[in-house]
Amino acid sequence: MINYCLTLDNKGHIIKTRGGNYLEKLYTVQEVADYLGLSRKTIYRYLKAGKLKAKKVGAEYRITQSQLDELLNGLPKEG
């Protein structure tokens, strides 16, 4: 059995493991939707279409910072 000691930030995101190694921040679908100014339904569409990758934790999705960055780099630039 592997034991983990995790440190959480004030929103419940995992930020550090027992050895002091930092992990990528994990976002909920709602947090990504709020950040991008989109609906949760749109984020779920992105997940289903493969535009956005995520990890499933229990019944919910979690999106890493690098997965969010990949999506942002693929979106058309405004201007």
- Uncertain runs are none
Major sheet attributes: 3 strands, antiparallel
Structural class: alpha+beta
| Termini gap | 52 Å
Q: How large is the radius of gyration?
A: 14 Å
What is the average per-residue confidence, as pLDDT, rounded to a whole number? 79
Which geometry do the CA atoms define? globular
SS strand fraction: 15-25%
Written as H for each helix and E for each strand, in order along the chain, the element string is EEEHHEEH
Within the largest sheet, what's the order of strands? 3-5-4
Helix content: 25-40%
Number of E strands:
5
Give the secondary structure arrangement, pairings included.
Elements: E1 7-8, E2 14-16, E3 26-27, H1 29-36, H2 40-49, E4 55-57, E5 60-64, H3 65-74
Antiparallel strand pairs: 1-2, 3-5, 4-5
Helix pairs in contact: 1-2
Protein model, in words:
The chain has helices at 29-36, 40-49, 65-74, and strands at residues 7-8, 14-16, 26-27, 55-57, 60-64. The chain is of the alpha+beta class and 79 residues long. It has a three-stranded antiparallel beta sheet. A two-stranded antiparallel sheet has the order 1-2. Strand 1 and strand 2 (14-16) form a beta hairpin. Helix 1 (29-36) packs across helix 2. It is globular. The termini are far apart. The relative contact order is 0.15.
